[in-house]
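Hi L.,

You mentioned the student needs an example of a multi-chain input paired with its predicted structure. This one should do, with 411 residues in total across all chains.
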Amino acid sequence: MTETLDISAVRAQFPVLSREMRGHPLVYFDNGATSLKPEPVLQALEAYYRDYSVNIHRGVYELSGYATAQYDQARESLRRLIHADPAAGEVIFTRGTTESVNMVATGWGLRHLGPGDEIVTTPLEHHSNMVPWQELAKRSGATLRYIPLTAGGSITTEAVQETIGPRARLVAVSAMSNVTGYTPPVEAILAAARAVGAVTLLDGAQYVSHHPVDVQDLGCDFLVFSGHKMCGPTGIGALYARRERLEEMDPVLFGGDMIERVTLEGSTWARIPEKFEAGTPNIAGAIGMGRAAEYLMEIGLDQIADHERRLFRVIADRMGSLDYVVPYGDAPDTERGGIYSFNLEGVHPHDVGSLLDQQGIAVRTGFHCAQPLMDHFGISGTVRASFYLYNTEDEIERFVAAVERIHGILT
Ligand SMILES: Cc1ncc(COP(=O)(O)O)c(C=O)c1O
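Structure written out for the whole complex:
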Protein backbone atom coordinates (compact mmCIF):
# COMPACT_ATOMS: atom_id res chain seq x y z
CA MET A 1 0.00 0.00 0.00
CA THR A 2 1.38 3.44 -0.82
CA GLU A 3 1.86 6.12 1.80
CA THR A 4 -1.07 8.51 1.61
CA LEU A 5 -0.47 10.69 4.66
CA ASP A 6 2.17 13.39 4.66
CA ILE A 7 3.53 12.21 7.99
CA SER A 8 6.14 14.95 8.37
CA ALA A 9 3.47 17.61 7.92
CA VAL A 10 1.19 15.79 10.36
CA ARG A 11 3.95 15.42 12.95
CA ALA A 12 4.78 19.12 12.75
CA GLN A 13 1.27 19.83 14.08
CA PHE A 14 1.87 17.95 17.36
CA PRO A 15 4.20 19.91 19.68
CA VAL A 16 4.71 16.99 22.10
CA LEU A 17 6.39 15.00 19.33
CA SER A 18 9.32 17.41 19.29
CA ARG A 19 10.20 16.55 22.89
CA GLU A 20 13.08 14.41 24.02
CA MET A 21 12.58 11.82 26.71
CA ARG A 22 15.56 10.44 28.60
CA GLY A 23 17.86 11.83 25.93
CA HIS A 24 15.95 10.29 23.00
CA PRO A 25 13.34 11.72 20.65
CA LEU A 26 10.01 10.65 22.12
CA VAL A 27 8.32 7.64 20.51
CA TYR A 28 4.71 7.89 21.60
CA PHE A 29 3.03 4.48 21.33
CA ASP A 30 0.36 5.01 24.01
CA ASN A 31 -2.41 6.32 21.80
CA GLY A 32 -4.83 3.72 23.10
CA ALA A 33 -4.72 5.56 26.43
CA THR A 34 -4.94 9.03 24.92
CA SER A 35 -3.84 10.82 21.78
CA LEU A 36 -1.59 13.84 21.49
CA LYS A 37 -3.20 17.17 20.52
CA PRO A 38 -2.48 19.07 17.29
CA GLU A 39 -2.07 22.85 16.89
CA PRO A 40 -5.58 23.51 15.50
CA VAL A 41 -7.13 21.96 18.64
CA LEU A 42 -4.74 23.81 20.95
CA GLN A 43 -5.60 27.04 19.15
CA ALA A 44 -9.34 26.42 19.42
CA LEU A 45 -9.00 25.81 23.17
CA GLU A 46 -6.87 28.88 23.66
CA ALA A 47 -9.21 31.01 21.54
CA TYR A 48 -12.14 30.12 23.77
CA TYR A 49 -10.31 30.96 26.99
CA ARG A 50 -8.56 34.01 25.57
CA ASP A 51 -11.19 35.60 23.34
CA TYR A 52 -14.69 34.61 24.42
CA SER A 53 -14.63 32.67 27.71
CA VAL A 54 -18.26 33.32 28.63
CA ASN A 55 -21.15 31.01 29.37
CA ILE A 56 -23.44 29.68 26.65
CA HIS A 57 -27.23 29.70 26.27
CA ARG A 58 -28.01 32.26 28.95
CA GLY A 59 -26.62 35.48 27.63
CA VAL A 60 -28.49 38.06 25.60
CA TYR A 61 -25.18 39.72 24.81
CA GLU A 62 -23.16 39.22 21.65
CA LEU A 63 -20.23 37.33 23.17
CA SER A 64 -22.49 34.71 24.74
CA GLY A 65 -24.27 34.28 21.43
CA TYR A 66 -20.89 33.72 19.79
CA ALA A 67 -19.84 31.14 22.39
CA THR A 68 -23.18 29.36 21.98
CA ALA A 69 -22.73 29.28 18.21
CA GLN A 70 -19.23 27.77 18.61
CA TYR A 71 -20.59 25.11 20.98
CA ASP A 72 -23.41 24.26 18.56
CA GLN A 73 -20.92 24.16 15.71
CA ALA A 74 -18.83 21.64 17.65
CA ARG A 75 -21.88 19.39 18.00
CA GLU A 76 -22.41 19.68 14.26
CA SER A 77 -18.77 18.68 13.61
CA LEU A 78 -19.26 15.52 15.68
CA ARG A 79 -22.48 14.79 13.85
CA ARG A 80 -20.67 15.02 10.53
CA LEU A 81 -17.82 12.84 11.81
CA ILE A 82 -20.21 9.94 12.51
CA HIS A 83 -22.73 10.80 9.76
CA ALA A 84 -25.74 11.12 12.05
CA ASP A 85 -29.01 12.50 10.70
CA PRO A 86 -28.59 16.30 10.29
CA ALA A 87 -32.16 16.98 11.36
CA ALA A 88 -32.48 14.80 14.43
CA GLY A 89 -30.30 16.35 17.20
CA GLU A 90 -28.79 13.02 18.17
CA VAL A 91 -25.39 14.02 19.61
CA ILE A 92 -25.10 14.66 23.35
CA PHE A 93 -21.95 16.00 24.96
CA THR A 94 -20.74 13.97 27.94
CA ARG A 95 -17.50 13.72 29.89
CA GLY A 96 -16.40 10.76 27.78
CA THR A 97 -17.11 7.17 26.83
CA THR A 98 -17.45 6.04 30.44
CA GLU A 99 -20.08 8.64 31.23
CA SER A 100 -21.91 7.95 27.96
CA VAL A 101 -22.20 4.22 28.72
CA ASN A 102 -23.39 4.96 32.25
CA MET A 103 -26.01 7.36 30.90
CA VAL A 104 -27.42 4.64 28.67
CA ALA A 105 -27.32 2.04 31.45
CA THR A 106 -29.10 4.31 33.91
CA GLY A 107 -31.22 6.53 31.68
CA TRP A 108 -32.36 3.91 29.19
CA GLY A 109 -31.61 0.56 30.84
CA LEU A 110 -33.29 1.08 34.19
CA ARG A 111 -36.44 2.24 32.43
CA HIS A 112 -36.65 -0.61 29.91
CA LEU A 113 -35.07 -3.75 31.39
CA GLY A 114 -36.34 -6.16 34.02
CA PRO A 115 -36.20 -9.79 35.11
CA GLY A 116 -36.21 -12.19 32.17
CA ASP A 117 -34.47 -9.70 29.86
CA GLU A 118 -30.89 -10.23 28.72
CA ILE A 119 -28.05 -7.78 28.27
CA VAL A 120 -25.38 -9.14 25.93
CA THR A 121 -21.77 -8.03 25.82
CA THR A 122 -18.36 -9.71 25.39
CA PRO A 123 -15.43 -10.64 27.64
CA LEU A 124 -13.08 -8.41 25.63
CA GLU A 125 -14.69 -5.14 26.69
CA HIS A 126 -12.97 -2.28 28.45
CA HIS A 127 -14.31 -2.15 32.03
CA SER A 128 -16.25 0.97 31.01
CA ASN A 129 -18.40 -1.14 28.70
CA MET A 130 -18.81 -3.98 31.17
CA VAL A 131 -19.13 -2.73 34.76
CA PRO A 132 -22.16 -0.46 33.97
CA TRP A 133 -23.95 -3.51 32.48
CA GLN A 134 -23.09 -5.61 35.53
CA GLU A 135 -24.59 -2.88 37.70
CA LEU A 136 -27.63 -2.53 35.44
CA ALA A 137 -28.21 -6.29 35.60
CA LYS A 138 -28.02 -6.16 39.41
CA ARG A 139 -30.41 -3.24 39.70
CA SER A 140 -32.92 -4.26 37.02
CA GLY A 141 -32.97 -8.03 37.57
CA ALA A 142 -31.92 -8.60 33.94
CA THR A 143 -29.33 -11.28 33.09
CA LEU A 144 -25.92 -10.43 31.67
CA ARG A 145 -24.58 -12.77 28.96
CA TYR A 146 -21.20 -12.76 27.24
CA ILE A 147 -20.51 -13.79 23.65
CA PRO A 148 -17.71 -16.36 24.11
CA LEU A 149 -14.27 -15.67 22.63
CA THR A 150 -11.95 -17.96 20.72
CA ALA A 151 -8.74 -18.86 22.55
CA GLY A 152 -7.06 -15.93 20.77
CA GLY A 153 -9.73 -13.43 21.76
CA SER A 154 -11.88 -13.23 18.61
CA ILE A 155 -15.62 -13.58 18.11
CA THR A 156 -17.14 -15.98 15.57
CA THR A 157 -20.49 -15.35 13.92
CA GLU A 158 -21.64 -18.73 15.32
CA ALA A 159 -20.93 -17.48 18.84
CA VAL A 160 -22.88 -14.31 18.05
CA GLN A 161 -25.88 -16.32 16.80
CA GLU A 162 -25.80 -18.63 19.80
CA THR A 163 -25.62 -15.88 22.42
CA ILE A 164 -28.01 -13.26 21.08
CA GLY A 165 -31.32 -15.02 21.68
CA PRO A 166 -34.96 -13.94 21.82
CA ARG A 167 -34.61 -12.53 25.35
CA ALA A 168 -31.81 -10.11 24.40
CA ARG A 169 -32.98 -6.52 24.93
CA LEU A 170 -29.65 -4.71 24.82
CA VAL A 171 -26.43 -5.67 23.02
CA ALA A 172 -23.34 -3.59 23.87
CA VAL A 173 -20.01 -4.33 22.21
CA SER A 174 -16.77 -2.62 21.43
CA ALA A 175 -16.03 -1.73 17.82
CA MET A 176 -12.35 -2.28 18.56
CA SER A 177 -10.54 -3.93 21.46
CA ASN A 178 -8.24 -1.58 23.34
CA VAL A 179 -5.96 -4.54 24.11
CA THR A 180 -5.50 -6.39 20.82
CA GLY A 181 -6.83 -3.91 18.27
CA TYR A 182 -9.28 -6.61 17.18
CA THR A 183 -12.38 -5.29 15.42
CA PRO A 184 -15.26 -7.69 16.19
CA PRO A 185 -17.84 -8.58 13.51
CA VAL A 186 -19.94 -5.55 14.35
CA GLU A 187 -22.28 -5.86 11.39
CA ALA A 188 -23.13 -9.48 12.25
CA ILE A 189 -23.64 -8.51 15.89
CA LEU A 190 -25.90 -5.60 15.02
CA ALA A 191 -27.89 -7.76 12.57
CA ALA A 192 -28.36 -10.52 15.16
CA ALA A 193 -29.52 -7.94 17.71
CA ARG A 194 -31.92 -6.34 15.25
CA ALA A 195 -33.35 -9.75 14.36
CA VAL A 196 -34.55 -10.18 17.96
CA GLY A 197 -35.52 -6.53 18.46
CA ALA A 198 -32.64 -5.72 20.82
CA VAL A 199 -31.26 -2.20 21.20
CA THR A 200 -27.55 -1.85 20.36
CA LEU A 201 -24.64 0.15 21.72
CA LEU A 202 -21.22 0.38 20.10
CA ASP A 203 -18.24 1.39 22.19
CA GLY A 204 -16.33 3.52 19.70
CA ALA A 205 -13.64 4.77 22.10
CA GLN A 206 -10.89 3.07 20.07
CA TYR A 207 -12.67 3.12 16.73
CA VAL A 208 -14.25 6.46 15.93
CA SER A 209 -10.89 8.26 16.03
CA HIS A 210 -9.24 5.79 13.66
CA HIS A 211 -11.86 4.69 11.10
CA PRO A 212 -14.67 6.21 9.07
CA VAL A 213 -18.00 5.68 10.83
CA ASP A 214 -21.53 6.07 9.50
CA VAL A 215 -24.12 5.45 12.20
CA GLN A 216 -26.95 5.51 9.69
CA ASP A 217 -25.32 2.73 7.64
CA LEU A 218 -24.45 0.78 10.76
CA GLY A 219 -27.91 1.20 12.20
CA CYS A 220 -26.74 1.11 15.84
CA ASP A 221 -28.92 2.73 18.51
CA PHE A 222 -26.08 4.18 20.57
CA LEU A 223 -22.45 5.02 19.82
CA VAL A 224 -20.14 6.29 22.55
CA PHE A 225 -16.69 7.90 22.20
CA SER A 226 -14.17 10.20 23.90
CA GLY A 227 -12.59 13.47 22.79
CA HIS A 228 -9.15 12.77 24.22
CA LYS A 229 -8.60 9.68 22.08
CA MET A 230 -9.29 11.60 18.86
CA CYS A 231 -6.83 14.51 19.17
CA GLY A 232 -9.25 16.44 21.39
CA PRO A 233 -9.15 17.47 25.04
CA THR A 234 -9.77 15.31 28.11
CA GLY A 235 -13.04 15.50 30.07
CA ILE A 236 -15.28 15.64 27.00
CA GLY A 237 -16.95 12.96 24.92
CA ALA A 238 -20.13 12.12 23.14
CA LEU A 239 -23.19 9.96 23.22
CA TYR A 240 -24.85 9.41 19.88
CA ALA A 241 -28.35 7.99 20.20
CA ARG A 242 -31.05 7.51 17.63
CA ARG A 243 -33.76 10.09 18.22
CA GLU A 244 -36.26 7.39 19.14
CA ARG A 245 -33.97 6.13 21.91
CA LEU A 246 -33.33 9.61 23.25
CA GLU A 247 -37.05 10.15 23.47
CA GLU A 248 -37.48 7.05 25.59
CA MET A 249 -34.50 7.80 27.83
CA ASP A 250 -34.51 9.57 31.21
CA PRO A 251 -31.96 12.24 32.06
CA VAL A 252 -29.52 11.14 34.74
CA LEU A 253 -28.32 14.57 35.86
CA PHE A 254 -30.80 17.19 37.00
CA GLY A 255 -30.42 20.93 37.51
CA GLY A 256 -29.75 24.02 35.48
CA ASP A 257 -29.90 24.15 31.69
CA MET A 258 -31.80 20.85 31.32
CA ILE A 259 -35.20 22.22 32.38
CA GLU A 260 -38.07 23.88 30.57
CA ARG A 261 -40.00 25.10 33.64
CA VAL A 262 -39.39 24.74 37.35
CA THR A 263 -42.02 25.35 40.03
CA LEU A 264 -42.02 24.50 43.71
CA GLU A 265 -44.07 21.44 42.88
CA GLY A 266 -41.88 20.02 40.14
CA SER A 267 -40.15 20.53 36.82
CA THR A 268 -40.38 19.76 33.13
CA TRP A 269 -37.43 19.07 30.89
CA ALA A 270 -35.86 21.10 28.12
CA ARG A 271 -35.77 19.79 24.57
CA ILE A 272 -33.24 17.20 23.42
CA PRO A 273 -30.21 17.55 23.52
CA GLU A 274 -30.20 20.14 26.37
CA LYS A 275 -32.33 17.75 28.46
CA PHE A 276 -29.26 15.51 28.77
CA GLU A 277 -26.68 18.25 29.43
CA ALA A 278 -27.39 19.59 32.90
CA GLY A 279 -25.23 22.37 34.30
CA THR A 280 -22.61 24.51 32.60
CA PRO A 281 -20.98 22.12 30.15
CA ASN A 282 -17.32 21.74 29.32
CA ILE A 283 -17.57 24.51 26.73
CA ALA A 284 -13.89 24.66 25.82
CA GLY A 285 -13.74 20.87 25.74
CA ALA A 286 -16.68 20.63 23.37
CA ILE A 287 -15.19 23.27 21.07
CA GLY A 288 -11.81 21.51 21.17
CA MET A 289 -13.42 18.14 20.42
CA GLY A 290 -15.36 19.65 17.53
CA ARG A 291 -12.14 21.08 16.13
CA ALA A 292 -10.48 17.69 16.54
CA ALA A 293 -13.30 16.10 14.53
CA GLU A 294 -12.77 18.67 11.78
CA TYR A 295 -9.02 18.03 11.86
CA LEU A 296 -9.51 14.26 11.45
CA MET A 297 -11.98 14.79 8.61
CA GLU A 298 -9.54 17.17 6.88
CA ILE A 299 -6.81 14.49 7.07
CA GLY A 300 -9.24 11.70 6.11
CA LEU A 301 -10.32 8.82 8.33
CA ASP A 302 -9.71 6.34 5.49
CA GLN A 303 -6.11 7.48 5.23
CA ILE A 304 -5.65 7.24 8.98
CA ALA A 305 -7.10 3.71 9.06
CA ASP A 306 -4.88 2.58 6.15
CA HIS A 307 -1.79 4.07 7.74
CA GLU A 308 -2.43 2.32 11.05
CA ARG A 309 -3.19 -1.02 9.37
CA ARG A 310 0.14 -0.74 7.61
CA LEU A 311 1.95 0.03 10.86
CA PHE A 312 0.25 -2.98 12.44
CA ARG A 313 1.46 -5.25 9.62
CA VAL A 314 5.01 -3.91 10.02
CA ILE A 315 5.13 -4.43 13.78
CA ALA A 316 3.43 -7.84 13.57
CA ASP A 317 6.01 -8.96 10.95
CA ARG A 318 9.01 -7.57 12.78
CA MET A 319 7.99 -8.81 16.22
CA GLY A 320 6.82 -12.13 14.71
CA SER A 321 10.42 -12.87 13.76
CA LEU A 322 11.49 -12.79 17.44
CA ASP A 323 10.77 -16.22 18.92
CA TYR A 324 10.61 -14.93 22.50
CA VAL A 325 7.74 -12.52 21.75
CA VAL A 326 4.25 -13.73 22.67
CA PRO A 327 1.64 -11.64 20.80
CA TYR A 328 -2.05 -11.52 21.76
CA GLY A 329 -5.00 -11.68 19.42
CA ASP A 330 -5.57 -14.32 16.73
CA ALA A 331 -7.58 -12.28 14.23
CA PRO A 332 -6.12 -11.69 10.74
CA ASP A 333 -4.58 -8.30 9.88
CA THR A 334 -7.77 -7.27 8.09
CA GLU A 335 -9.62 -7.39 11.41
CA ARG A 336 -7.04 -5.43 13.39
CA GLY A 337 -6.47 -1.74 14.04
CA GLY A 338 -3.23 -0.11 15.13
CA ILE A 339 -2.73 -1.83 18.48
CA TYR A 340 -0.15 -4.55 19.20
CA SER A 341 -0.11 -6.31 22.57
CA PHE A 342 2.59 -8.75 23.58
CA ASN A 343 4.77 -10.14 26.34
CA LEU A 344 8.36 -11.29 26.40
CA GLU A 345 8.52 -14.85 27.62
CA GLY A 346 9.23 -14.96 31.34
CA VAL A 347 9.42 -11.16 31.74
CA HIS A 348 6.94 -8.96 33.62
CA PRO A 349 5.31 -6.41 31.28
CA HIS A 350 6.11 -3.53 33.66
CA ASP A 351 9.82 -4.33 33.39
CA VAL A 352 9.59 -4.17 29.61
CA GLY A 353 7.66 -0.88 29.81
CA SER A 354 10.20 0.70 32.16
CA LEU A 355 13.12 -0.32 29.99
CA LEU A 356 11.37 1.00 26.89
CA ASP A 357 10.87 4.27 28.74
CA GLN A 358 14.64 4.40 29.35
CA GLN A 359 14.96 4.53 25.58
CA GLY A 360 12.36 7.28 25.14
CA ILE A 361 9.54 4.94 24.11
CA ALA A 362 6.14 5.38 25.78
CA VAL A 363 3.90 2.31 25.90
CA ARG A 364 1.23 1.10 28.31
CA THR A 365 1.67 -2.01 30.43
CA GLY A 366 -0.76 -3.85 32.67
CA PHE A 367 -4.30 -5.07 32.26
CA HIS A 368 -5.56 -2.10 30.22
CA CYS A 369 -8.90 -1.89 32.07
CA ALA A 370 -9.76 -5.30 30.63
CA GLN A 371 -9.20 -7.80 33.43
CA PRO A 372 -11.67 -10.41 32.07
CA LEU A 373 -9.72 -10.48 28.80
CA MET A 374 -6.48 -10.94 30.75
CA ASP A 375 -8.17 -13.82 32.63
CA HIS A 376 -9.18 -15.28 29.27
CA PHE A 377 -5.55 -15.18 28.10
CA GLY A 378 -4.39 -16.48 31.50
CA ILE A 379 -2.06 -13.52 32.12
CA SER A 380 -1.95 -10.52 34.42
CA GLY A 381 -1.02 -7.97 31.76
CA THR A 382 0.64 -7.15 28.45
CA VAL A 383 2.87 -4.54 26.90
CA ARG A 384 0.75 -2.52 24.48
CA ALA A 385 2.01 -0.42 21.59
CA SER A 386 -0.82 1.61 20.07
CA PHE A 387 -0.48 3.85 17.04
CA TYR A 388 -1.98 6.95 15.56
CA LEU A 389 -1.69 9.04 12.42
CA TYR A 390 1.67 10.55 13.42
CA ASN A 391 3.55 7.29 14.08
CA THR A 392 6.08 5.98 11.59
CA GLU A 393 7.81 2.80 10.48
CA ASP A 394 11.11 4.26 11.70
CA GLU A 395 9.64 4.49 15.17
CA ILE A 396 8.65 0.82 14.93
CA GLU A 397 12.24 -0.01 13.95
CA ARG A 398 13.48 1.84 17.03
CA PHE A 399 10.92 0.00 19.12
CA VAL A 400 11.90 -3.44 17.82
CA ALA A 401 15.59 -2.69 18.34
CA ALA A 402 14.76 -1.61 21.91
CA VAL A 403 12.82 -4.83 22.53
CA GLU A 404 15.79 -6.86 21.27
CA ARG A 405 18.11 -4.99 23.64
CA ILE A 406 15.71 -5.52 26.55
CA HIS A 407 15.54 -9.25 25.84
CA GLY A 408 19.34 -9.33 25.83
CA ILE A 409 19.48 -7.56 29.21
CA LEU A 410 16.76 -9.53 30.96
CA THR A 411 17.43 -13.07 29.85
C1 LIG B 1 -12.58 0.50 24.30
C2 LIG B 1 -12.68 1.54 25.37
N1 LIG B 1 -13.85 1.81 25.94
C3 LIG B 1 -14.00 2.75 26.88
C4 LIG B 1 -12.92 3.48 27.32
C5 LIG B 1 -13.13 4.53 28.37
O1 LIG B 1 -12.89 5.78 27.84
P1 LIG B 1 -12.83 7.08 28.78
O2 LIG B 1 -11.82 6.75 29.83
O3 LIG B 1 -12.38 8.16 27.86
O4 LIG B 1 -14.17 7.28 29.33
C6 LIG B 1 -11.66 3.23 26.78
C7 LIG B 1 -10.48 3.96 27.28
O5 LIG B 1 -9.37 3.49 27.20
C8 LIG B 1 -11.54 2.24 25.78
O6 LIG B 1 -10.37 1.98 25.23
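You could point out the following to them. Residues 126 and 370 are 5 Å apart (CA to CA). Residues 96-98, 126, 128-129, 174, 178, 203, 205-206, 226 surround pyridoxal-5'-phosphate (CB under 6 Å).

Best wishes,
N.
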